[in-house]
Amino acid sequence: MSANNMADPRRTNKILRYKPPSTESNPTLEDPTPDYMNLLGMIFSMCGLMLKLKWCAWIAVYCSFISFANSRSSEDTKQMMSSFMLSISAVVMSYLQNPQPMSPPW
């Protein structure tokens, strides 16, 4: 066993544990994409609900998925889940009012 330690080229005094850089010292490390997608999802959800536009409701679901995928685990999930549920309700309500397939917006 001691022969193994003698052949080990690593220096134990040079091993340092990785510490991620703090966002307080460098604010450019914080990614605003989840926040923007959350806001866009809520705007499109409201447009889908109020204006009965199915494509707005589907874009809201897409934005909510992007927001959820890009968020950090330490963030508050209540706002994200409320945005997701709002976008799902916009899709459900738009199809309950008019069950026809979605027509292209052009």
UniProtKB/TrEMBL annotation:
Show the Pfam families listed in the entry: ASTER
Domain of life of the native organism? Eukaryota
Membrane-crossing segments per the record: 39-68
- InterPro entries in UniProt: ASTER (IPR005351)
A GO CC annotation given for this chain: endoplasmic reticulum membrane
Q: Where is this region: Disordered?
A: 1-31
A GO molecular function term, named singly, is:
protein folding chaperone
User: What GO biological process term is on the record, naming one?
Assistant: protein insertion into ER membrane
Compartments, record wording: Membrane
Q: By its UniProt entry, which PANTHER family does this protein fall under?
A: CGI-140, PAT COMPLEX SUBUNIT ASTERIX
> Can you tell me which family this protein belongs to?
Belongs to the Asterix family.
Q: Specify the protein name.
A: PAT complex subunit Asterix
